[in-house]
Amino acid sequence: MGRKRDRDPAHPPALRLRTPDVTAKRATGPSRWVTAALRGLVAAAVALGVAELAAGALGRVSSSPLLAVGAGFIDLTPVWLKDFAIRHFGSNDKTVLLFGLGAGVAVAALVIGLVSRRHLVMGLAGPAAFGAVGVLAALTRPVAEPVDAVPSAVGALAGMAALALLVRGARPSAVAPRPSPAAVRTAQSTATSDGGATEASEPVNGALRRSEDAGAGIDRRRALLTSAGAVGVAAASGVAGRLLLHRGDVSSVRADLRLPRPASPARPVPSGAQVPVPQMTPFRTPDKDFYRVDTALTLPQVDPRDWTLRIHGMAARPVELTFDALLREALIERDITLSCVSNQVGGDLAGNARWLGAPLAPLLRRAGIRSGADQILSRSSDGMTLSTPLEAILDGRDAMIAVGMNGAPLPIVHGFPARLVVPGLYGYVSATKWVVDLKVTRFATDRAYWTRRGYADHAPIKTFSRVDVPKPLAALKAGRVAVAGTAWAQHRGIDAVEWQVDDGPWRPARLAPVPGLDTWRQWIAEWDAAPGSHTLRCRATDGTGRTQPEHRTPPFPDGATGWHSVVVTVT
Predict the structure, then answer these.
(1) For helices 197-245 and 30-58, what crossing angle results, to 10°?
(2) Helix (H) or strand (E) run with residue 486 in it
(3) pTM higher than 0.90 for the full model?
(4) 369: DSSP letter
């Protein structure tokens, strides 16, 4: 025991070679799963980047998969969820939606990466399914063309190819590289001269280990290079796609546009229309602060040189106007307050601006309205449809195809180059942005986007008032305090505003002057505030003598109403 076996020079011991373990260099533990998940994420980035590049090359912004799916999601959104999004996110609702979609895609991509680690074919089904959803969403848009399917399809193929390359590049070689015959002979000769089988195997196996390590290093480098290449493709294609899409940006065209002077200028805004109270809402809303509620995930870029307005349907003489022809009409300029039907009691989804445009009624009469028509179905360049009661356009109010806002061409976000403005109606039946088509029709024949979802066909703006100052939960000092706010009832006007402290008597507020019936009206009162917690309320009476009801109703289906109140603390 412990005695070394005698060596026979004539019969050297058999050389035992260790079989290389090709799995020895694979990642172990949680890192395997993290790496696999990240491969799915990189493949998804490649898919989206290539799809963006394809959309840019085609000049079809709306065919970008995220935008197409997002637009489809908006179409399927129930009313309660839409109101929730507008109430909590306001004009940022679209940003939140796109962020949510992006996060969902990222999570799905991580799962796909994990699945593909063991089942590549199942993993490849993920990008294919997402591509199919993108194609379906793109082809079901109102203004879709067959070519809109291309970005999602190409992106899916790119994502599948990237995933396959990443997965295969991360797998070690099935057979480890063998050492050269010369290396084996040298190791064997050395072992034979020095010792037995046990000792002999070590130099040879060392050579094998070095060769195996070199092979594993090559595999790791290959996986790293493949991943880096995929990330580069994703980034480059995404950036290139964005640059191509910006080719259609009309900001410079808008900046160079000069609008003609109105044939009928707006009345001057009376001195005192703006109540001199700090933090009070401005009488005229700046463009950047004007509310935005629409379904466009990306702003339509409509070049006025290519723009036309078509008036047709139940019309004896269909009309088609270019932008230059529209500017040659006798333009009118008016101060008009717009309001969204989604505005809650006390909400800020309303704005007042000075609009410049062509009167709509003469254009419709020029087209020859046929008997029985009761609706104008307007369509925007991105396919959105709104329905406007024909009687509201022909009753003498200043309905117009607006081209200017606050002394400049319409901002792109508010409908450049042209939009519909009809005072006295909520925006969803009167304020089509990027308008390109007016169809004279009947409510019984054609249904618009919002009316198909249960909103009312006729939606005159309800009398509305709110307390703007002091702000809710404000901490005030005892003594004389200004209480001020805004009220509106477009096309009827505001005749009176009353305010109340706690359950005390209603008191009349002083009304600021206004240039006409179609703008909101500011009001102010003075309050001798006593210490304690107090509730301030207001209510308005319109030009027909009707006062706001106390009971609050939700925005759906034809606008919210009720008394607005704020709670303040006086010390």
Answers:
(1) 30
(2) strand 479-488
(3) no
(4) B
Angle between helices 93-118 and 150-170 (to 10 degrees): 40
Report the DSSP beta bridge partners of residue 312: 439
pLDDT digits (tens, 9 = 90+) for 178-233: 555 555 455 455 544 444 444 444 544 554 454 444 444 446 666 666 667 777 77
- Which of these, 366, 344, 351, lies nearest to 413 by C-alpha position? 351
Q: How many Å apart are CA 537 and CA 500, to the nearest integer?
A: 5
Ramachandran assignment for 411, one of left (phi > 0), alpha (psi -120 to 50 degrees), beta (any other): beta
H/E stretch holding 214 reads helix 197-245
CA within 13 Å, CB half, 251: 5
Q: Which residue has the tokens 């064997």?
A: 188
* Residue pair 362/374 in contact by the 8 Å Cβ criterion: no
Contact 138, 71 (CB under 8 A): no
More confident residue, 171 or 562: 562
Sign of CA dihedral 413, 386, 325, 307: positive
H or E stretch at 537: strand 532-542
Residues whose CB is less than 8 angstroms from the CB of residue 519 and which lie 6 or more positions away in sequence, other chains included: 283, 335, 336, 337, 352, 488, 490
367-420 confidence digits (pLDDT tens): 999 999 999 999 999 999 999 999 999 999 999 999 999 999 999 999 999 999
Are the CB atoms for 466 and 563 separated by under 8 Å?
A: no
Burial of residue 125, with CB atoms counted within 10 A of its CB: 0-12 exposed, 13-18 middle, 19 or more buried: middle
User: Which SS3 state, helix, strand or coil, does residue 497 take?
Assistant: strand
pLDDT at position 212 is 46
Q: Are 254 and 416 in contact (CB under 8 A)?
A: yes
Q: Which helix (H) or strand (E) holds 408?
A: strand 408-409
Locus of tokens 């172990």:
28
- List strands edge to edge, sheet with 494-501: 475-476, 564-570, 532-542, 494-501, 507-508
Helix (H, G, I), strand (E, B) or coil at 323: helix
350 sits in the region (left: phi over 0; alpha: psi -120 to 50; else beta) called beta
CA atoms of 507 and 509, how far apart (whole Å) = 7
User: Could you tell me if 561 and 525 are in contact, meaning their C-beta atoms sit under 8 angstroms apart?
Assistant: no
Domain ranges of the chain: 30-246, 287-453, 464-570
Are 299 and 251 a contacting pair, CB within 8 Å? no
Q: In which element (H, E) is residue 139 found?
A: helix 120-139
Query: Rounded distance, CA 338 to CA 103, Å?
Result: 35
Place of tokens 């003598």: 545
E-strand ranges in 260-313 read 308-313
CATH topology of domain 464-570: Immunoglobulin-like (2.60.40)
Contact, 302 vs 250, CB < 8 A?
yes
CATH number of 287-453: 3.30.1120.10, 3.90.70.10, 3.40.1180.10, 3.90.420.10? 3.90.420.10
Sign of CA dihedral 209, 212, 218, 223: negative
Per the CB < 8 A criterion, the answer to whether 311 and 363 are in contact is: yes
Q: How crowded is residue 357: how many other Cβ atoms within 10 Å of its Cβ?
A: 27
